[in-house]
Design a protein that fits this description.
Blueprint (H helix, E strand, L loop, with lengths): L8 H12 L10 H8 L2 E6 L2 E5 L7 E5 L5 E7 L9 H22 L4 E3 L5 E5 L3 E7 L4 E7 H11 L4
Antiparallel strand pairs: 1-2, 2-3, 3-4, 4-8, 5-6, 6-7, 7-8
Helix pairs in contact: 1-3
InterPro entries: DUF6301
Length: 161
């Protein structure tokens, strides 16, 4: 089996607590300060997003903007990607998800919500924003999103909506 890197428990703790305590206005003008704080690299900028290298290679992070120009989500990979087509790749992503959720739970306490499914999420909702861990088909991401964005996302993807 190929050895793939997963962020350490300390790195996960630093990331999720850093995101949780981020004191900013969600303004795109502050993106460079946030990127610098976490040691990410900007790869490209578009009108509604910034693509990042979050430490796991090209396009391993994104900052998305709403139509009104505010930041609504930051999402970064916390492990290397794997093939969703192989049993080994799927097992790696599931193991990484479990490890990362455990480290985030130690740092933030019990989650406020668990969203089961193919793209499972575990969330810690605050007054204005939510920190979460999301299992994608090929990797695991940690995100920070406005509660408004999370609520709209849930409304849109809810079965029957």
């Amino acid at each position: 089996m190929v050895e793939r890197r997963i962020s350490s428990d300390e790195e996960i703790s630093d990331l999720v607590t850093g995101l949780r305590t981020l004191d900013w206005t969600w303004d795109p003008d502050e993106v460079d300060q946030v990127v610098e704080r976490f040691g990410w690299k900007v790869e490209s900028r578009r009108r509604r997003s910034v693509r990042l290298d979050a430490g796991f290679g090209m396009a391993t992070g994104f900052i998305d903007f709403s139509r009104d120009g505010k930041v609504e989500q930051i999402s970064v990979a916390v492990c290397e990607s794997a093939s969703a087509e192989s049993p080994e790749g799927r097992a790696y992503v599931q193991d990484a998800f479990a490890k990362i959720v455990a480290a985030a739970t130690r740092a933030l306490g019990e989650p406020t919500e668990r969203v089961p499914g193919e793209s499972a999420e575990v969330r810690w909702r605050g007054d204005e924003a939510t920190v979460g861990v999301k299992r994608l088909s090929v990797q695991v991401n940690v995100f920070l999103a406005t509660n408004e964005y999370v609520d709209e996302f849930d409304r849109v993807v809810e079965p029957g909506s």
